[in-house]
Design a protein that fits this description.
The chain is globular. About 10% of the residues lie in helices and about 35% in strands. The protein starts with a helix and ends with a strand. By secondary structure, the chain is mainly β. It has one domain (about 70-285): Jelly Rolls. β1 and β2 (about 50-60) form a beta hairpin. It has 2 helices and 20 strands. It binds magnesium ion.
Length: about 290
């Protein structure tokens, strides 16, 4: 009887000790915003098959919402003239001459080409990534969508800059081209629309200046410090110390992936989305976490 009492008395502290060790309830409870909800809807696809589609909402707004009453289009701002030459302590990743320091995603030589001082994908070339890996950093990237407009929505000048190979800042021809706001130029894909639309015209050079702080994970793989992004598009603030609520990779048409624990560094990756988007003047400065 006394033994049973002891067991009961020790049980609760033991469980609390275990919870403290794993950190699970505390790690998931510390982020109150945005409120993330996930659910599954049975839908019939184009082939007439019924499939389960995952849905996600952030603060009550569906990921990739297109209704302007629920997800308003960011106001249009005309940017001023911008220069962004590398400062003395920058690591120049692309200087307009060659693809040295870059590879395909599997580490093999990249098929991307250098044409007129600009870096471009070719058909089916896949992404291009830096061989050197980076964590928290300041990144400058210049890009131009094709001058000849083809397609619409997500099909017009789609590319992207990925920090640590996975957190995408969308590149898209968003000049007079409406799509879901969390997928237009300057969006953190599926997570955060830009504050304003500072896009230049198709074919014109544009810039992203990105201040990125990497996420931090505990030993159990829980995110304990979320990634943050401050981004200027053509010199205009479009993400203001945005605390990223999870991953940005496609999960389904209205859902993106959650955080998954990873290392301290990863490549800077440029997306090949089947559109000939050009890049130039890419440089980075490493930052402390
Ligand atoms: Mg993209």
């Amino acid at each position: 009887m006394e033994l049973k009492f002891m067991k009961t008395r020790l049980f609760l502290p033991f469980i609390l000790f275990l919870l403290l060790l794993t950190g699970t309830p505390f790690a998931s409870a510390q982020f109150e915003t945005p409120v993330i909800k996930e659910w599954v809807v049975k839908e019939t696809n184009d082939n007439g098959e019924v499939e389960e589609v995952e849905y996600m909402s952030l603060d009550g707004v569906l990921v990739h919402e297109t209704d302007p009453a629920l997800a308003p289009q960011p106001p249009v701002v005309q940017p001023g003239a911008v220069t962004g030459m590398p400062p003395s302590d920058a690591i120049v990743l692309f200087n307009g001459k060659n693809t040295d320091g870059w590879s395909a995603d599997d580490g093999s030589p990249s098929q991307w080409i250098v044409k007129g001082g600009a870096l471009q994908p070719v058909e089916d070339s896949g992404v291009i990534r830096t061989v050197q890996e980076f964590g928290s950093c300041q990144l400058h990237v210049e890009w131009a969508t094709p001058a000849t407009v083809e397609g619409d929505g997500q099909g017009r000048g789609n590319s992207g800059v990925f920090l640590m190979g996975q957190y995408e800042i969308q590149i898209l021809d968003s000049y007079d081209n409406t799509t879901y706001p969390d997928g237009q130029a300057g969006a953190l894909y599926g997570r955060s629309a830009p504050l304003v639309n500072a896009c230049r015209k198709p074919g014109e050079w544009q810039s992203y200046d990105i201040i990125f702080h990497r996420p931090v994970f505990d030993a159990s793989g829980n995110v304990v410090k979320r990634a943050t992004f401050t981004i200027l598009h053509n010199g205009v603030l479009i993400q203001d110390h945005l605390e990223l609520s999870g991953g940005t990779l496609w999960k389904s048409k209205h859902s993106v992936v959650p955080y998954e624990a990873h290392g301290d560094k990863g490549p800077i990756t440029l997306q090949d989305h089947g559109n000939p988007v050009s890049f130039r003047n890419i440089w980075v400065r490493e930052l402390a976490d």
